[in-house]
Design a protein that fits this description.
12 strands; 5-stranded mixed β-sheet; disordered N terminus; 285 residues; single chain; alpha/beta; globular
Length: 285
């Protein structure tokens, strides 16, 4: 395979008619086995339900935008902010997982704004001029909810001395712990996983503030997924969330079930975007 091809082209060249599935949002190396167990069970149920071209394995390492917009996407997890912006009309919403983690309430989650544990500041206003580690400019928890927290403090002016794009919540946490940034906004499920699975890293950080809550990370499928396949995905997900044989995998992933939250609830992402814009703070800076 030609490694010089763009990822989407390489992915197409590497597969036959099989669709793709991925669970990339909470897939630390320590969680891969649990995610694989969940997908194996989902895939088996989908095949038994007559769904064609169900992949046996999860796709890993794909750029998120390429993954989310792939026409052969069967199932993946996305972020609520791009669901209402860049992905609007391009994918189909499936469901919202619930997680049992501090900062979560049913299908809703929040951002934990973390600083180094020895940081003396007690509020965000004291961090004017600080360096921000930002996972992605399109992140709901890393950017949109944090922007809404900072907007009332910024007065329409730059608040941070530097904004570094890190590529992931884990990398943002590491940047703060390592002294290369002063704060980051991590989604509450990631923060719970880091506290449990990376205690040495988490012990170097503390939560300075929590954001408002927003709907959790949605499960999506390709826009061209037909109604019968969408219904089969929903049935398989419901069964996997009830299967006692998968209780250990669900517990490892902090999964607490699924919600029938309407897709329209994700419009709250646009509310927080307008809130910041109305305060003359349209982007984190």
């Amino acid at each position: 395979m030609n490694a010089q091809l763009p990822f989407a082209d390489r992915l197409t060249a590497a597969r036959t008619a099989t669709r793709i599935a991925a669970l990339p949002m909470y897939d630390l190396p320590e969680l891969e086995e649990a995610n694989d167990q969940i997908w194996t069970a989902l895939g088996r149920r989908l095949r038994d339900d007559g769904v064609a071209d169900v992949p046996k394995r999860l796709t890993r390492g794909a750029p998120l935008t390429a993954l989310w917009t792939d026409p052969d996407l069967l199932l993946t997890q996305a972020c609520g902010y791009p669901l209402m912006t860049a992905l609007a009309g391009q994918v189909r919403f499936v469901s919202t997982p619930r997680y049992g983690a501090p900062g979560c309430r049913g299908p809703f989650h929040r951002s934990a704004v973390v600083v180094r544990v020895l940081e003396r500041g007690q509020g965000l206003a004291e961090l004017a001029g600080a360096r921000l580690a930002l996972n992605d400019q399109a992140s709901g928890t890393g950017m949109n909810l944090l922007r809404a927290l900072i907007a009332p403090l910024a007065g329409g002016r730059p608040f941070f001395s530097d904004v570094e794009i890190t590529g992931s919540h884990l990398a943002s946490a590491e940047a703060v712990a390592g002294g290369n940034a002063d704060l980051a906004a991590l989604d509450s499920v990631t923060w719970a996983h880091l506290r449990r699975l990376r205690p040495t890293l988490a012990a170097q950080l503390r939560v300075l503030a929590w954001s408002a809550e927003s709907p959790g990370l949605p499960l999506i499928t390709a826009r061209n997924t037909d109604e019968a396949t969408l219904a089969a995905i929903s049935r398989a997900l419901a069964e996997v969330m009830r299967d006692p044989r998968l209780a250990g995998a669900r517990r490892e992933l902090l999964l607490d079930g699924l919600s029938d939250l309407p897709e329209a609830r994700y419009l709250s992402a646009l509310h927080w975007k307008r809130f910041a814009a109305d305060l003359d703070y349209p982007e984190l800076r």
